Amino acid sequence: MTWEVLSIVGTVAFAVSGAIIAMEEEYDILGVYILGIVTAFGGGAIRNLLIGVPVSALWEQGFLFQIALLSITAVFLFPNNLLRHWRRWGNFFDAIGLSAFAIQGALYASEMNHPLSAIIVAAVLTGSGGGIIRDLLAGRKPLVLKSEIYAVWAVLCGAAIGLKLVTEPWELYTLFIMTTSLRVLSYSYKWRLPNKNIKAFQ
């Protein structure tokens, strides 16, 4: 049940996130749907390739595809005055998607009895893979490659699940809320990881 809920939450969140960014980039209706679908399912496709699950498994998720399409349609039909604050809402939905999919990816790998390293990689790829593809298709620098703290939260989700620190459904939901909150705080207060600018030395 936890798995299904997280799948639905992550699918809706990333589909909406992709659609909002597509509209900001002034994509036509087809582009909005394509970017929304790619954002919602891209991370899972990459994860499946790396942990040995057939990519064709994605096509068995008909219900989730319907959920994604309905979510994109709803966003596309929203009045423009409700989309003026797209950056805030886009980041919020992205945070929800990151948290839900990172936990789902870690659970997936854990169920397959993969080692801790694979569980963490599955969490990161599922949580941020769709966002990376979305940003690349939108001509933006992927968030996960910036100094902004993003993928770190997926790593922590993977580690918590891989180390069996979180096992019960209520613990998973608590982890989801905490991860989403930390991601919201990190972009609200501009938390950054250390970086090095070599241009200053040229």
Q: Please, what is the average pLDDT?
A: 86
Structural class: mainly alpha
Taking pLDDT < 50 over at least 5 consecutive residues as the criterion, the unreliable ranges are none
Helix content: over 70%
Major sheet details: none
Supply the number of helical segments: 7
Membrane topology: Multi-pass membrane protein
Domain Glycine transporter: 5-78, 92-160
GO cellular component, one term: plasma membrane
Subcellular location: Cell membrane
Task: Please outline what is shown here.
This protein is mainly α. It is built from seven helices and no strands.
Please describe the topology of this protein:
Layout: H1 2-24, H2 29-51, H3 62-77, H4 86-111, H5 116-137, H6 151-162, H7 169-188
Helix pairs in contact: 1-2, 1-3, 1-4, 2-3, 2-4, 2-5, 4-5, 4-6, 4-7, 5-6
Describe the structure.
Helix 1 (2-24) packs antiparallel against helix 4. This protein has one domain (2-193). The protein has seven helices and no strands. With 202 residues, it is mainly alpha-helical.
Features:
202 residues; mainly alpha; 7 helices; globular
